[in-house]
User: What shape does this take?
Amino acid sequence: MMENTENSTVGLSKLDLELAILRWWFFSHMAYNYQRMQAGGFAVMMGPLLKKLYPHQPEKVVAGLKRHMMFFNTEPRWGSVIHGIIIALEEQRAKGKDIDDATIVDLKSSLMGPLAGIGDTISGGLYKPCVLGICLGWAATGSIMGPLVFAVCMLGYDLLVTHLAIRKGYTLGTSAVTSVLEGGLFKKLTTFFSIMGLFVLGIMVCKFITIDFTWISVLAGNKVVLKDLMDKIVPKTLPLLITLVSWQAIMRGVKVVYVLLALFAFALVGGALGIIG
Amino acid sequence: MIEAVLVALLGWFQSSSMPLAWWLAREPIMAGFWVGLIYGKPVEGIIIGAAINVAFLGWNSTGGANPSDLYSAGLLGTAIAIQGNVTTEQAVVIAISLGVIGNYAWILFMSLNSVIPSFQDKCAERGDIKQLIFLQIVPSQLVVILVRAIPAFLAAYYGPPIIESLLAAIPVWGVAGFNAVGKVLPALGIAMLLKYMGRKDLLVFFAVGFAVSAFTGMNNLLFAAILGAAMGYVYISLQPKEVTAGGAVPIQEPSKEASLYEGEDEI
Assistant: This one.
């Protein structure tokens, strides 16, 4: 890479990195599509950086842009560790280090899956539901605290994690990923949020699924209220049963839409017959 | 009329695909609040939005595929419910139905946008960064206006009277069935979330939560979260230290997850 020696003085400033983070944060999904997913967002983030790294070599900027227009898709917050690493690699490359195209492209495509797994689990499966769980409690009573706290918690989380992930990826370069994957922190974090989330979820079954038996039968002149009977054994049995059956159906690969339709039909018939309500 | 235009604007903003839109307007809890504000009934808006949101608790758009459309369910569900004077349960049913239809807007958005990268490729070829950024930001917004804002306007303007006359035509037993549906559907949201969270070894905490609430009637979720966090902390503290030492165990976890949900856009 002799031709790169003239660039040995170029480098990225803190501001460049901050602007790149903001570009990714704002624009990553604006043209989200089936063809390339987040590729456009990635190229938008890299573009100005490439221009800075290769001020006098437009052909290298072109090559870089093409490199980053390749299919890319990850969870936008935790996954942006990749962005930090790639920025660091591109900078080293511009400075003359021997890093080839394949390394950069392979790194991107091999990391996007695992990091999406981490990100989805934490953001979508654990953090958001926990915040939502608390905020929905407030919102159900009409309190402004619900939307307010939700917005603050989610926006703050999104901005903070994206920011830290890119910065961390940038400073640690390739070693970042191993530290994330092998540190044991990930497992601890998911375990913690799973426990908290599952506990809250158990309570939400009782709070939000308000269906119950309404069937009253007259046996030998005595009114038998099914609900009272069930409440003596386990209260809220019906909400729990419906939840567990739906969950098992989804786990066994039944499409969510079919579960939805089944619930729809079950409740419509049950409600119309006066058994549940 | 003005309200419907504002709902359309909100429909555009919530689908503009950036974090500000995701967290300030996309989720039904937020959309409900804004729609309520537009119609001068913020408190009702929050309550309806929250009820709809429960059914979408486990909503996760994995790899660009949606189970149902969170966007239109929250926005249009609240807009129609607030104007049409329906109960909260009925609002949930209407919202879920709208979500199933609204999913086509999402598919359309993703499909129409698929043209954009081809043009961005040409910009890359020329090294035209400015044009590339422009293509990322602007054309997709036109798509959003087409598939989200305009339908939102039509639904907010013409929807309520249609829904109202529909509800008026349904017999009493039908309304009972309809209301029961609204009470049952939140189970779907919780079930979907259970799929994400439900690690076998930790399911006992779900059972504990249910038992505590079912038998004591305790349903303060903030209190529950604090209790849950404490239990989580204790559980982790009691784990043997070896998990952190070897690399093998922690590595397995993310790669297993990755195969479950490969690549995701947003939550």
